Amino acid sequence: LLNCKYGRGWMEHHKLAVNCFRYFGSGQRMFERISEECLFFLDAIDQHQGKAFNPKHLVTNAVSNITNLIIFGQRFTYDDSDFQHMIEIFSENVELAASGWAFLYNAFPWMEYVPFGKHQKLFRNANEVYDFLLQIIKRFSQDRVPQSPQHYIDAYLDEMEQSATDKATSFSQDNLIFSVGELIIAGTETTTNCLRWSMLYMALYPRIQEKVQMEIDCVLNGRPPALEDKQRMPYVDAVLHEVLRLCNVVPLGIFRATSQDAVVRGYTIPRGTMVITNLYSVHFDEKYWSDPSIFCPERFLDCNGKFVRHEAFLPFSI
């Protein structure tokens, strides 16, 4: 899904993932399940009884459970040690994949045979994740009813059965495991980091935090939030957009490739060339943003306090 070359395999998996996230991960029912997860999250915070603690694991678990509902059809408790361990490995692998060792390995693949280095840790983690996901997929597919999918795994297994006689199909058990792993990482890391940055900025800018709280209190007036409340909170929306702009959770976006030969500013880019977008430079370009290094949610509001979009806002990819 994320690192596959453009072709039949990518198109098949992309279509399935988009359809599943649209069907299982949107609408009022999904919003209600997100609200339920927020209550579990708040209860877990209350257990610390006002004492300082690192919220990373709680935030990661809460965010991951939203993706888990789409992939597996249910959430994992915060004290599930096996899943907690997997989440830690996923986070570690993301850090390792962005390290110097990973770039060296990509440049010199023969390093696979070097018995030391962080790339070996990455391989060990990948094997452990594979075994864990294999077992968990088997567990969640036991009560499956063919052609009546309740989550992503059900839908994927349906595709595997339908294409069983197609030798060119890309649907397989291995690709199911890889896809589930990528969806968990993609659905967890970016949102988790965004929320953690949001917490930090609210702590650093208490006046902005106060304005956020005032708008939420004014709109909700003591009742639980509803899906349609989002459009009634322009300042909250602006704050979240400014967090995404400033923290750059995906600074280089998702790597792309040219589908045909292209000419850019006189340079010939052959078909199949990897294209990396520097989203960091876009979000700090003074051509589009005044004082780009300053945290200023008002840049996403017009003179009437209404939320406005910016063409140079590209938090995840083009």
Automatic annotation (TrEMBL):
<keyword id="KW-0472">Membrane</keyword>
<dbReference type="GO" id="GO:0046872">
    <property type="term" value="F:metal ion binding"/>
</dbReference>
<dbReference type="InterPro" id="IPR036396">
    <property type="entry name" value="Cyt_P450_sf"/>
</dbReference>
<keyword id="KW-0479">Metal-binding</keyword>
<dbReference type="InterPro" id="IPR050182">
    <property type="entry name" value="Cytochrome_P450_fam2"/>
</dbReference>
<keyword id="KW-0560">Oxidoreductase</keyword>
<dbReference type="GO" id="GO:0004497">
    <property type="term" value="F:monooxygenase activity"/>
</dbReference>
<keyword id="KW-0503">Monooxygenase</keyword>
<comment type="similarity">
    <text>Belongs to the cytochrome P450 family.</text>
</comment>
<protein>
    <submittedName>
        <fullName>Uncharacterized protein</fullName>
    </submittedName>
</protein>
<keyword id="KW-0408">Iron</keyword>
<keyword id="KW-0256">Endoplasmic reticulum</keyword>
<keyword id="KW-0492">Microsome</keyword>
<dbReference type="Pfam" id="PF00067">
    <property type="entry name" value="p450"/>
</dbReference>
<dbReference type="GO" id="GO:0005789">
    <property type="term" value="C:endoplasmic reticulum membrane"/>
</dbReference>
<keyword id="KW-0349">Heme</keyword>
<dbReference type="InterPro" id="IPR001128">
    <property type="entry name" value="Cyt_P450"/>
</dbReference>
<dbReference type="InterPro" id="IPR002401">
    <property type="entry name" value="Cyt_P450_E_grp-I"/>
</dbReference>
